[in-house]
Each structure stands twice: as structure tokens, then as C-alpha cells.
Design a protein that fits this description.
Strand content of chain A: under 5%
Number of strands of chain B: 2
Radius of gyration of chain A: 17 Å
Oligomer: heterodimer
Largest sheet of chain B: 2 strands, antiparallel
Order of helices and strands of chain B: HHEHHEHHH
Shape of chain A: elongated
Strand order of the largest sheet of chain B: 1-2
Number of domains of chain B: 1
Distance between the termini of chain A: 46 Å
Distance between the termini of chain B: 13 Å
Helix content of chain A: 55-70%
Order of helices and strands of chain A: HH
Number of helices of chain A: 2
Largest sheet of chain A: none
Number of strands of chain A: 0
Strand content of chain B: under 5%
Number of helices of chain B: 7
Chain lengths: 58, 246
């Protein structure tokens, strides 16, 4: 890290692209698993959270 | 920077998820358990499938009539009590980590300075796009409620969330009137198309309980977004400073 700034615009583009890609993959994968995955075991474990957070369940 | 995204997502999601899991434990989960007693009563009677047209069917989540995969009693599910609370909390934490990662993805892609104020604005928009807008078509549902086929509802939920998020971004970030108009169309379009609904209403859960659950669920989801966003905004500058010093 060559800058002490906390703002993201000062970072290099490729670094930002990598960070955005990583964040998107993590975010989408986690929300797909907790909110949408059809696997029975995942559904049963996630059941109360899916209802509680208004994800379509059942 | 990827490491920083990971660190902040996990820490923010863990903290926010723990807080909201505690809230869920005393708000939505008791109503879900209560609804399951009505659902069990409904399952004792043969479901009136004839009441439905071909597009919709009743799916009893925990009843013998459930024909969706995975609603078999032989399948594993967490035992009521501590185990169920543990899994619900873990899944809520995982969801919060996911929300935190999406917030970071959005803010870094937009080139925003990440602090508490900007993160909270992004979090509020996250709630509007992934919480409120989909819930206007597909109301937060208790077990035992009749609903259209799951895949159709998931598809509508996803399309609505993406359209609303894109619409909000266009509206807030661009000055051109025609882009603002496109944004409004994007936000309204999913509701004009309409969410998939069941042909007949079957829930035996009292309307008062279901209504209470719907408002609680939205409140809890707003809390999850805002607490997650606050944590992201609080942690990112700290972790960045530490990375700069290293």
C-alpha cells in the first residue's frame, strides 16, 4: 500500500478491479448459499434466517 | 486490498450478524415457531390442492404433503433449541458477511470514500433494493403460508433486487433527466410485472401474527443492513490505516 489515504479513488485501477471482483464473488456466493441454495440441508439450517429476512423460502 | 476486503467483510459481518441474530432470537424466530404449530395443524388435514390452478401449489414446509425436494422428515434438520439457534445465528452472520462484501464491492467500484456516513447511505440503499422492494411483491412469509412456485419467486426477487439497485444508483449518481427517468422505470418495472402469487390463500396462521411478522422481518432486515454498513464504515478506515502503516 503506497498511500495512507482511506479513500478508494487513489488506488490503482487494477487493484480496485481485483478488490471489487473478490467482494462480489464472496457476497454473491454467501447470499446465494444462505438465501437461495436448494440443497435440503442448507435449506433446513438456514430456514429461520430465510423467513426472518424475507428470502423466498419453501 | 483483497485482504482488506476480506478482513473488513468478515469482521463487520461477524459483529453485525451476532447483534442481529440476538434480535432475531427474540423477535422473528418466536413467531416462526408459533406459526409452525399452525402449519402442523394444517398438515394433519389433506391439503386442498384442487383449490389451486396449475401455476401455484401449496407447499407445506414441514408436512408430509410437501413435494418440494428436501421437505422430507427423514432429512437432516437442526434440532429445536440450542442447535437450531446456533444454525440460525451462523446463517445470519454469513448473510451479514455477504451484505458487507456487496457494500464494499459497490463502494470500491463507485470510487467512494468509505466511512461511516457513506457506508450507511449504501446500507440504506441495500435495504431498499434487497429488502423493501422485493418484500413489496413477496411479503415476508411465515411457515404455512401458501405461495407460488419457489423458483418463480426467487427469480422475481432477484430481478427486483437488481433492477432496484441499478435504478437507485442511476438516480442518485447521474444528473441527466433521461437517466433519472430510466431509473424510475427500472424501480417500478418489477412491480408493474408483478410478483408470482398463489391462486388461493391457505394459511391458517392468524392474520395478526402474519402482519406482525411481516413488519418485524422488515425491521430486522433494515437493522441487519444498517448495522453491517455501520461496521463496514467503522472498520474500513481503521484497517486501511493499519495497512498503510505496515
Amino acid at each position: 500500500m503506497n498511500t495512507g489515504s482511506v479513500s478508494t479513488p487513489t488506488l490503482s485501477v487494477s487493484e480496485r478491479v481485483k478488490a471489487v471482483a473478490a467482494a462480489l464473488v464472496i457476497g454473491v456466493a454467501l447470499i446465494y448459499t444462505t438465501g437461495f441454495a436448494a440443497s435440503t440441508n442448507v435449506h433446513n439450517a438456514a430456514h429461520d434466517t430465510r423467513h426472518g429476512l424475507a428470502f423466498p423460502c419453501h | 486490498m483483497v485482504t482488506r476486503v476480506l478482513t473488513v467483510s468478515i469482521l463487520a459481518g461477524l459483529l453485525a450478524g451476532l447483534i442481529v441474530a440476538a434480535l432475531q432470537h427474540v423477535t422473528t424466530t418466536p413467531l416462526i415457531l408459533k406459526a409452525e404449530t399452525f402449519e402442523a395443524a394444517l398438515a394433519l388435514k389433506a391439503p386442498t390442492l384442487a383449490a389451486f390452478d396449475g401455476e401455484a401449489k401449496i407447499i407445506l414446509a414441514h408436512g408430509p404433503a410437501g413435494d418440494a425436494p428436501g421437505h422430507d422428515h427423514a432429512e437432516w434438520k437442526p434440532q429445536d433449541g440450542l442447535q437450531r439457534t446456533f444454525f440460525t445465528s451462523a446463517v445470519t452472520i454469513a448473510t451479514a458477511i455477504g451484505f458487507a462484501a456487496l457494500l464494499l464491492a459497490g463502494m470500491i467500484a463507485a470510487g467512494d470514500t468509505i466511512d461511516q456516513r457513506s457506508a450507511l447511505v449504501w446500507g440504506a440503499c441495500g435495504f431498499l433494493a434487497l429488502g423493501l422492494a422485493p418484500a413489496m411483491g413477496l411479503a415476508p412469509e411465515l411457515p404455512g403460508a401458501a405461495s407460488a412456485a419457489l423458483e418463480q419467486r426467487q427469480l422475481w426477487w432477484l430481478a427486483t433486487a437488481i433492477a432496484t439497485a441499478a435504478g437507485l444508483f442511476l438516480f442518485l449518481r447521474f444528473e441527466q433527466p433521461w437517466l433519472k427517468l430510466v431509473a424510475i422505470v427500472l424501480i417500478l418495472l418489477p412491480h408493474a410485472v408483478g410478483a408470482p402469487h398463489p391462486a388461493a390463500l391457505e394459511s391458517k396462521v392468524p392474520a395478526e401474527v402474519a402482519a406482525h411478522f411481516a413488519s418485524l422481518s422488515l425491521g430486522i432486515q433494515a437493522a441487519l443492513w444498517l448495522v453491517t454498513a455501520f461496521m463496514v464504515g467503522a472498520l474500513w478506515p481503521r484497517v486501511s490505516r493499519r495497512a498503510a502503516e505496515a
